[in-house]
Specification:
With 318 residues, the protein is an alpha/beta fold. It is built from ten helices and 13 strands. The protein is 39% helix and 19% strand. The strands form three sheets. A five-stranded mixed sheet has the order 3-2-1-4-8, sandwiched between helices. Strands 11-10-9-12-13 form a five-stranded mixed sheet, sandwiched between helices. A three-stranded antiparallel sheet has the order 5-6-7, with no helix packed on it. The chain is globular.
């Protein structure tokens, strides 16, 4: 058995995989789209295929890996390897033994963790969070997830800590994909933003974003589609992104008021693409709601980029 480890970042639009050394040095990587139909078993097969491709790029077979770590959305039980309620994935309302399924398929040990928490721990260990004793990670992507490190240790609560996307930022506000109203994710999550864009377009608001989507061969408004639409000066795109950042700032401020962390790291598909561009706006919105505003947290964009979630997941392997 080698000392190489695999990492899988399971996202709403893509499955990113890596094979890395113990210190996070990249040896191979691969990416596949997340299935849009089927169910958990179909997603697991796509994850297996993507990991095999990354292992091949590293010149190794999956069974030779020391193990594979997985960052999954939903309620990811690290002890049992079961993932429940991953609502950003197709037909994943119940529970599925993802760890066991992948372990059998790949013939190696598989460890499961929350997707954002493991990505945040990756940034804490080898990325933008290195050197801080406490930080809040906010992963702005298909949804809005969070991860917490306090006193140098991950804070998981009873297993579901860090769900910043479901902090209520507007009472009786917009409907969230989770079914509730007024969550931060209802305004800032990519899926909710796309739903809002489609409603506006159907009501006659002019936008080029769906033409850009089709031109790029996509069936969803991925982060790259939003970026191209913004570059082309699409007014609806600009409006929805600024709306998202406004509510991100509100929610982050509330979390900072509660936890008083040293740093906030912004990651995720949209966060990595737009973090630098909108950081001043985000910081300004956050400051409006800080109780103690003379020592705000340091605001950072995730350094590990699109590979951060998978690299963080690989750290689950001991």
């Amino acid at each position: 058995m080698s000392d190489l480890r695999g990492g899988i970042d399971l996202g709403g639009t893509k499955i990113q995989t890596v094979v890395v050394e113990a210190d996070g040095t990249l040896r191979g990587e691969a990416r596949q789209p997340t299935p849009t139909s089927g169910g958990p078993a179909d997603v697991a097969r796509a994850m297996e295929d993507a990991l095999r491709e990354a292992a091949s790029a590293a010149g190794i077979g999956p069974a030779e890996l020391r193990g594979v770590g997985v960052g999954s959305p939903g309620d990811a039980d690290g002890k049992t390897g079961v993932v429940s309620g991953a609502r950003n994935l197709p037909c994943w309302e119940g529970s599925f033994a993802l760890g066991e399924e992948l372990s059998k398929a790949l013939d190696t040990d598989v460890r499961i963790g929350n997707d954002v928490q493991v990505a945040v721990e990756g940034e804490y260990a080898v990325g933008a969070g290195k050197g801080y004793n406490s930080l809040l990670g906010v992963w702005w992507g298909t949804g809005v997830g969070g991860g917490i490190v306090l006193d140098g240790k991950p804070w998981l609560g009873r297993g579901a800590a860090g769900e910043i996307g479901h902090m209520v930022v507007k009472r009786n506000g917009a409907r969230c994909p989770c079914g509730r109203r007024g969550c931060m994710e209802a305004y800032a999550g990519r899926a909710a933003m796309e739903a809002k864009a489609r409603r506006e377009h159907a009501q006659g608001v002019k936008t080029e974003i769906f033409k850009i989507m089709e031109k790029r061969g996509k069936d969803r408004l991925t982060s790259s589609v939003w970026e191209h639409a913004l570059r082309e000066g699409d007014a609806l795109t600009e409006s929805l992104l600024r709306r998202a950042v406004r509510y991100l700032g509100t929610g982050i401020a509330s979390a900072v008021n509660l936890l008083d962390v040293e740093a906030v790291v912004i990651g995720g598909g949209l966060g990595v693409r737009f973090g630098d561009r909108f950081m001043d706006h985000l910081t300004k919105e956050m400051h409006k709601h800080l109780f103690v505003d003379d020592r705000p947290p340091q605001m950072q964009v995730a350094e590990l980029g699109d590979l951060g979630g998978a690299i963080g997941a690989s750290l689950l392997v001991s």
